UniProtKB/TrEMBL annotation:
UniProt-recorded name of the protein: 6-phospho-beta-glucosidase
Organism: Limosilactobacillus reuteri
Lineage, opening ranks: Bacteria, Bacillati, Bacillota, Bacilli, Lactobacillales
Domain of life per record: Bacteria
Length: 72
């Protein structure tokens, strides 16, 4: 899951801002839904949600660690 999250983050970072990257990951997450009554679809959705959540969390951690630009 970590490797897939890292790949997703790398793909999301092709966007211009962290906000756009986060929106991209959330869009990917929303596109992965299928038939909720099918156990395979349900398992795939759970894995996708976990990977996307991990990717968003890591992206936000990175964003929060950026220095503040102070203009004199």
């Amino acid at each position: 899951a970590q490797q897939l999250a890292n790949e997703l983050i790398a793909e999301a970072k092709t966007k211009n801002t962290y906000g756009e990257a986060t929106a991209y990951i959330r869009k990917i997450s929303q596109q992965a839904y299928g038939d909720i009554t099918d156990p395979e679809d349900r398992a795939g959705m759970a894995v996708n949600d976990a990977i996307c959540s991990l990717a968003v969390r890591r992206l936000h951690e990175e964003e929060r660690s950026l220095p503040i630009n102070k203009e004199d």
